[in-house]
Amino acid sequence: MSSGDSVLESFISNISDAEENARNNTREECPVGDSTVETVIKALAYFIILIVSLVGNILLILVILSNKQLRKSINYFVFNMAVSDLVNPLTIMPVQIVQIISGSGSWKVDSPWILGNILCKLSYFLPDVSLVVSIESLLLISMDRFVAVVFPLKAKLISPKARLISIGCAWLVAMAVHAPYFYTFRLFRIDNETYCKPDWGPSETHTKKRYLMANFITFIIIPVCLLAIMYGFIARTLKSKNKKSRQRLSFEQRSRDRQLKKIIRLAVAIIIAFVVCTIPVFVFTFTLIFLWNWKVPAICAFRTVIPFICLFMLHLWSAVNPCICFIFNKRYRNGFQQIPSLANNCRTSVEEESRRRMPKGATSNGKRLSKTSAM
């Protein structure tokens, strides 16, 4: 595993001390580097999810922007997740592909040094901010649906403005939590090669462990518990609506109830996909912190294969999320037809703006020239 792998990548990459202890305590020699076949498979797998993530999230953003009916309810949070998921194919995935192909975890951009340092910090800051924003977005979606199902009379209190404020707060919290990256991540020269690694200072071991453990509890364990509780209440509330009560509902109320269930199915599908993609890294991290006490067993698989699978599954989430949205929501699929109209509207607005800024004399002269040419 390369020393530069990102976070929840920092949860894995920052076990370098434990890995070193494991190497010192075992005589087993692990193979260094991947074979040509392994390199091709890994690079191709990352390239595929990079393209799917980039195209899928851009399309999802354009669909929501081009359809006014989608600019409401949980679509605010789906749009926010699509924006945050775009960070991965633009930052950490290219870094991973370069490291896989080169067979080295060294940092390739080191000239000028200040530019290399900036890219080093941003390449690990942005993906981790993106991950936390995605988790917070899942919580916001769950809270939105929880209020809509359990307290339907209070659902109108959640205005678009409140949703936008909560999204802004999610980004601010994520950036504040990962602000230490701008201090810790930096370039180092080791054996004539440049590496992007975190340096936590003199008390590195204790500071790093406390920081990672606090992040894991705050953004993994607590959100998972809250999601389980909220969807438990949602399921119980929906079950309590028996057939007799539904028969007494008007046609409009029944159609609204069906639409609500479709939205809940989409939300549940997104959460299940997130759990499937992230459970390897969560299990590995939980085991590392609470069972192994930060000491990785002296087995090659725990230092090579498993960390790669954890990171790949984590990065896969940004490609799976837009696919889930298009599969489970017909409105998203139908929204493809309105993307050209969005482009036309943008072009029209740009032309109108340029006409407004054009001097009146130039406009009149242009008209005279056109009339002269016509004559």
Characterise this structure.
The protein has 375 residues and is mainly α. It has a single domain, classed as Rhodopsin 7-helix transmembrane proteins (Rhopdopsin 7-helix transmembrane proteins), CATH 1.20.1070. It has helices spanning 9-13, 16-24, 36-66, 75-85, 87-90, 92-102, 113-150, 160-177, 181-184, 204-240, 243-247, 251-291, 305-328, 330-334, 339-357, 360-374, and strands spanning 185-190, 193-198. The protein has a two-stranded antiparallel ribbon. Helix 3 (36-66) packs antiparallel against helix 6 and helix 3 (36-66) runs parallel beside helix 13 (305-328).
How is this fold's topology laid out?
Layout: H1 9-13, H2 16-24, H3 36-66, H4 75-85, H5 87-90, H6 92-102, H7 113-150, H8 160-177, H9 181-184, E1 185-190, E2 193-198, H10 204-240, H11 243-247, H12 251-291, H13 305-328, H14 330-334, H15 339-357, H16 360-374
Antiparallel strand pairs: 1-2
Q: Percent of residues in beta strands?
A: under 5%
Largest sheet: 2 strands, antiparallel
The largest sheet has its strands arranged as 1-2
Question: Class, according to the CATH hierarchy?
Answer: Mainly Alpha
CATH architecture: Up-down Bundle
- Low-pLDDT runs of 5+ residues are 1-9, 11-28, 369-375
Q: Outline, from the CA principal axes?
A: globular
Number of helices: 16
Q: What is the residue-averaged pLDDT?
A: 78
Calculate the terminal CA-CA distance, rounded to whole Å.
Answer: 75 Å
- Number of spatially distinct domains: 1
CATH superfamily caption: Rhodopsin 7-helix transmembrane proteins
- Along the chain, the helix and strand elements come as HHHHHHHHHEEHHHHHHH
Number of DSSP strand runs: 2
Tell me the radius of gyration: 25 Å
Helix content: over 70%
Enter the CATH topology name.
Rhopdopsin 7-helix transmembrane proteins
Structural class: mainly alpha
